[in-house]
Amino acid sequence: MVLDVHAAADFYATAQGVVAGRLIRDRVAKIWPSMAGLSVLGLGYAPPYLRPWREEARLTVALTPAHLGAARWPMGTANLTCMAEEDALPFSGPIFDRVLLIHGLESSENARRMLREIWRVMKDDGRLMVVTPNRQGMWAYFEKTPFGHGTPYSPGQVGRLLASSLFRVEQRDTAVFLPPTEMRIVLRSNRLWERIGHRLLPQFAGVTITEAVKDVYSAMPTKPNASRRFVLAEAP
Q: How many beta carbons lie within 10 A of that of residue 220, not counting itself?
């Protein structure tokens, strides 16, 4: 089942979504502690994760693949939200310092073509962060959350896919060890679940987090796609 962006927005408005989003943001922030002056692309369904960077980054763009639908996010002078084909991103060249791919890889219609497009629009010293549902985690099998849609991945599968798309994995992490429940007592103890999970059961995390860089010595640049369709979406 493919993720619907409106269902994802509704999830992140719940207590369960707030907790899951914060746990993932905390781990991402350990790897990317500062976005000052950088241009950032969030691909998939990224608004809940881009918001903390809006004031710090030079540019933040939230792009949802066309087959997922248009996400709404307030536009500003340095912030934009749009919808486009995942294999025809509406950017002419390498302009992004950071790319966050979340709720995107597992629902991609052609993961390798999407990753090659990301490669094309990233700067040579840019960095890609891929967050995917973990194949061994419980969250991948509960469709009431965005993590229960599409194809879950193991860390090894993500690494091999990135390598075949001319990226080099730099580091890995995991997040979201609490069970996929709405019970308040479980949600309130999320920090305890994270500490225990990271120490004892990292393979059963809800999501895997992979940071990668462009393997610029193994590739020739791809040619821009002549047909790039995208739609801007502004919040009312």
A: 6
CATH at 47:
3.40.50.150
Q: What sign results for the dihedral spanned by CA atoms 212, 36, 46, 122?
A: negative
Domain count, the chain: 1
- Among 236, 231, 196, which residue's Cα sits nearest to residue 67? 231
Residue 143: which domain range?
Answer: 5-232
pLDDT in tens, the chain (236 residues): 567 888 899 999 999 999 999 999 999 999 999 999 999 999 999 999 999 998 899 999 999 998 886 666 554 445 577 888 999 999 988 999 999 999 999 999 899 999 999 999 999 999 999 999 999 999 999 999 999 999 999 999 999 999 999 999 999 999 999 999 999 999 999 999 999 999 999 999 999 999 999 987 765 545 555 445 444 443 33
Burial of 124 (0-12, 13-18, 19+ CB in 10 A): exposed
